[in-house]
Description:
- 28% of the residues lie in helices and 28% in strands.
- By secondary structure, the chain is α+β, with helices and mostly antiparallel strands.
- It has a single domain (12-173), classed as Peptide Deformylase.
- Strands 1-2-3-6-7 form a five-stranded antiparallel β-sheet.
- The protein is globular, with a radius of gyration of 16 Å.
- It starts with 26 loop residues before the first helix and ends in a 6-residue tail after the last helix.
Amino acid sequence: MAIRPILVAPDARLKQKSAPVEGPVTDAHRALMSDMLETMYDAPGIGLAAIQIGEPVRIIVMDLAREGEDKQPRYFVNPEILWKSEETAPYEEGCLSVPEFYEEVQRPARVRVRYMNYEGKTIEEEAEGLYAVCIQHEMDHLEGVLFIDHISRLKRENALRKLKKVKKAAEQDAPGKRL
């Protein structure tokens, strides 16, 4: 397992659509998921899409355990949303690729998802609450969509301007080193 660098907006790779995993879940996919999980825990975060570490494949890891609880890692290969409730719910979201910025986003309150797990078994289940928010947020990454794409243009531009300023300052402090 290895901690990998997390791409930060406005990195263009975050806007690309991720490709489906072809065939069964392999040891190479599991190694990627292990790296993703270690990277996510180190950040720290509760969800991470493979594209956020520069791997444009449809893989997500997540752990919604609260502080002090045992870790509960979850793995999603080729996740798809089969159904969304008409009822929506607001949730203040943040993102490892948009650090230090949080904003309320409205999303369907419940979704039905299908995916392959770590072992490659197909799972179909309903998600609600934080699980529904997180799976939709991470699945947006697989489509090249960031949570800031769901907020007003003014707020999104302000967030990106702030990120560019932080990145520029970091590059001046450590030339050649990327965030």
